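Our consortium's second objective concerns turning raw sequence data into structural hypotheses that experimental partners can test. To show how far this objective has progressed, the report includes one record in full. It was chosen at random from the queue rather than selected for favorable results. The single chain below, 362 residues long, was entered without modification.
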Amino acid sequence: MIKVLIINTVGMGFDGITNSIMNYYRFLDKSDMQIDFVATNEVDDRLTNQIEWNGGKVYALFMRNKNPFQYIKELTKIIKDGEYDIVHAHGNSCTLQTEMYAAKKGGAKVRIAHSRNTTCSHKIFHRILRPFFDRTYTHGFACGVDAGKWLFEDKRFTVITNGTDIEKFSYKNEIRQEYRKKYNLEGKKVIGHVGSFFYQKNHDFLIDIFYELTKMDSECVLFLMGDGDLRPEIESKAKELGIYDKIIFTGKTLEVPQLLQAMDVMVLPSRFEGLPNVAIEWQIACLPAILSDKITRDAKITELVEFMGLGEGAKAWATKINDIKIIDRQIISEKIKYTVRFAGFDIQDNAKELKRLYGSFI
């Protein structure tokens, strides 16, 4: 029995990192594995129930940032008492040294640091902790090449793609018709975005883009799927610009696969990213997508994706979106699914490879 403890240092919710972790968890063959989780936040019951139903445990440790020494103490105890073979921690900086140190102290022989981004918001700590981090992890994983180079520099790492359930997100015309009718979208161009309302995702610029787009197409609609600290600020800006009634704020939702069917164009003007899950999901759903040039080029696995510089301005982005023609997604669906599988983003294959790696490490 392989015992694995997965740690999400940015908290478990319905964001991209959690979705990627849970995709692997759902498809991993757990017949000879015990997989438990540590979260740095209060976990939604829907996630907890799913994990417990599969025989796993969820430990919530809230003090990682406020009291790191207490966090290390409690995490070490969990690892030692659980006799975990592998500690697999997800994050975006050398502050992962915290988890790697606790894992080493707790007796875990395999300590995996998994890079999830291409930068971080606390670069001073990142630099200070670099030498300690390098001495405590045993294996490096990254969601993409750029994310790996950011965290591991010139040291060895393995790219673990953000595998996706292809059938779950593939285009389905009947669901498109259902959701277009549900939200009264007939005859309208629908722009979509999926992401938490945080600085990284650049919702402020997205609202500027949509404001410019409404001048070109007064019937367009914007869907913002997600939640977060900056949502009230973004809602306030939309009201000030007089476009609030053209935007649908869904909040946290489990209906993203269905809602994607109703979209026409997706936009991701992020200030920085690793390899965003959503960009893969959008392509599986056969959706044209405009991504900022701050996002790794690894995200482009089909011709549906285009990149634009943030410095080009909101009007240029709006013009690009307005010029995109609504395509017949049914015609290209099978070709797109094949392309995604060939590029290595089929979660069923990815989960088998991850289990093989776990086994080889121990």
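The partners drew two points from this record. The first strand starts at residue 2 and ends at 8. The domain at 166-342 is CATH 3.40.50.2000 (Rossmann fold). Both points have been shared with the crystallography group to help prioritize constructs.
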